[in-house]
Write a structure and sequence with these properties.
It is built from four helices and no strands. By secondary structure, it is mostly helical. The longest helix is centred in the C-terminal third of the chain and has 26 residues, at 61-86. The chain is elongated, with a radius of gyration of 15 Å.
């Protein structure tokens, strides 16, 4: 997860950054893609770690905390966007 998760996080971060600068606009279902990719990667890691490598969970705990914070921030941003677009 360290390398794969980092690359995915950088890619999603670049998309979010460009959207924040208004260089690109994600509309419709595409606005959920960055968060969906990150959540999918997290679920895949947790599944593999629980089934095959439980010791890996302890090593990746700091990264898991960062991923959870990022996911929560992305969810709050999507909710703020939906509230602003509906009013």
């Amino acid at each position: 997860m360290i390398y794969q998760g980092g690359i995915i996080l950088i890619g999603a971060g670049i998309i979010q950054f460009l959207e924040g600068l208004k260089c690109i606009r994600l509309s419709g279902i595409t606005k959920y893609y960055p968060m969906g990719v990150i959540i999918f990667n997290l679920v895949a890691f947790l599944t593999i770690a629980f089934l095959f490598h439980p010791k890996l969970l302890l090593l990746a705990l700091p990264q898991l905390i960062v991923f959870m914070i990022i996911i929560l921030l992305m969810i709050s941003e999507l909710r703020r966007f939906e509230v602003n677009s509906s009013s």
